[in-house]
Specification:
The chain is an alpha/beta fold. The protein is 35% helix and 15% strand. It folds into two domains: 243 residues, 3-Layer(aba) Sandwich (Rossmann fold), CATH 3.40.50.2300; 161 residues, Rossmann fold (3-Layer(aba) Sandwich). The strands form four sheets. Strands 10, 11, 12, 13 and 14 form a five-stranded mixed beta sheet that branches. The chain has a three-stranded mixed beta sheet with strand order 1-3-2. A hairpin with a 2-residue loop joins β12 and β13. It starts with 18 loop residues before the first helix and ends with a helix.
Length: 431
């Protein structure tokens, strides 16, 4: 159930939207596999700007739902991005002079396979699960925690992030992210948020109760569950009419990106023009050119990968242009590709700060995570603060809007944070 890509690249899946909503909406055939690369090579241009790393590698793993029922998009970008990061890093000195080897595990969206992949990660002596995008992480998170293996970055929407103190998110955790959605809606003056959600996965239905609690915490805004829908139904006109009748003035989808676009197209045909609010993880390049999505509001746990005024975003694009140009041209290249990469940058920052090398243990890396409290990774993320022995509850976020084909940061690329009272209410709700 493993393979090695001898060219050092790998093909994987991309999150097509917020994982808790769309994990079961798209899927392909199931296999479990891994690939790895510790290449220290690079282009002549990249080699010129730094000495290539050499010697024994630092081994890390990444577990993702790349194929199978419950896979997340199957667009081929995730591993290519991971390997682009490793190749670039190794061509520019690696981690404290040592190359990094990334082993990729495919859990196929199957909890049992996910647990087996976690066991293999431990057997391979990987010191962390970095940048994972898995729909079944809750099935193996506790196993990694028992073995002292940290989970760094990746999908910070998984609920295990609220119980595993060795989970180090690179952005806003799910409860804070969801409250931020309704909080932004309230701040912008919207009165009634209509929720249309997927019928394929129980987790979509579970979001109804979550958002209802969030509306109670905030006060002054109405949350209206409209209907379950499937990705294959021929029309969403009945749901659009229902939102019109309920006087919904802002649409919140619990759907995959393509379904969202079809829903809005049907609503616009009915003359129902309420804007959309969603998680930034759902956004893909075609959103900026889809007229129905103009004025869409977004909440994100990382800076948008469209914001190339940030040096880190420039580096992201340069890495992909050098080592994975196919990822940039993939029509489903999106925010979660960038989210994966930011997780690797978080590991990189901690490993460099903590003097991590080939003989370092997972415990050494965990201690290194506490050396970078307050980091934004140079403007890539919300401020990240990790406290030893405590579950890491990141509660700041970015707010954005699509305006005439451009993604505009609503707060000038600055983050907004939930109030202490809101955080306390969320923690009470999730305990």
């Amino acid at each position: 159930m493993r393979y090695t890509n001898r060219r050092g690249g790998r093909i994987t899946a991309l999150v097509a939207g917020m994982l808790t909503f769309v994990a079961v909406v798209s899927g392909c055939g199931a296999t479990a596999n891994t690939s790895s690369s510790s290449s220290a090579g690079g282009s002549a241009q990249s080699q010129a700007s730094g000495s290539a790393a050499s010697g024994s590698p630092i081994v890390i793993g990444t577990i993702g739902s790349q194929t199978g029922p419950g896979s997340i998009g199957n667009t081929g970008n995730g591993p290519a991005i991971d390997q682009a990061w490793a190749k670039w890093l190794n061509a520019h000195g690696g981690i404290n002079g040592h190359p990094v080897k990334v082993i990729t595990f495919d859990d196929t969206g199957d909890p049992a396979v996910g647990l087996q992949m976690a066991k293999e990660l431990v057997q391979d002596k990987a010191i962390a699960d970095v940048g994972p995008i898995s729909t079944v992480q809750t099935a193996f998170s506790s196993y990694l925690e028992q073995h002292g293996i940290p989970i760094i970055g990746g999908n910070f929407y998984n609920t295990d992030i609220l119980t595993n103190s060795l989970n180090f998110p690179s952005g806003t955790v799910l409860p804070a992210d969801q409250l931020a959605v309704l909080g932004l809606a309230k701040k912008l003056g919207f009165k009634n948020v209509g929720f249309v959600y997927c019928a394929e996965a129980p987790i979509c239905t579970a979001q109804v109760a979550t958002y209802e609690e969030d509306a109670k915490i905030l006060g002054g805004i109405k949350f209206t569950p409209i209907a379950k829908v499937t990705a294959t139904q021929p029309s969403y006109t009945p749901e659009c009419i229902a939102m019109q009748n309920d006087k919904v003035d802002l649409i919140l989808p619990g759907l995959a990106g393509p379904t969202i676009i079809r829903l809005l197209a049907d609503c616009r045909q009915e003359g129902f023009n309420a804007p959309l609010i969603d998680e930034a993880a759902n956004i893909q390049p075609n959103w900026l050119t889809t007229s129905a999505l103009n004025n869409t509001y977004l909440i994100g746990g990382d800076i948008s990968y469209f914001d190339d005024s940030v040096p880190g975003v420039q580096q992201y694009n340069e890495e992909l242009q050098t080592y994975a140009p196919q990822a940039l041209t993939n029509p489903e290249h999106g925010e979660t590709d960038f989210q994966t990469w930011v997780g690797f940058k978080l590991f990189e920052a901690a490993a460099k700060a903590g003097g991590i090398g080939p003989n370092s243990t997972p415990a050494d890396l965990i201690n290194a995570m506490y050396k970078i409290n307050g980091t934004t990774l140079g403007g890539l993320t919300v401020p990240l603060t990790f406290v030893k022995g405590q579950v890491n509850f990141e509660s700041c976020y970015y707010s954005e809007q699509i305006v005439s084909g451009k993604l505009v940061m609503l707060n000038g690329s600055k983050t907004t944070c939930l109030t202490p009272a809101e955080v306390a209410a969320l923690k009470s709700e999730t305990n």
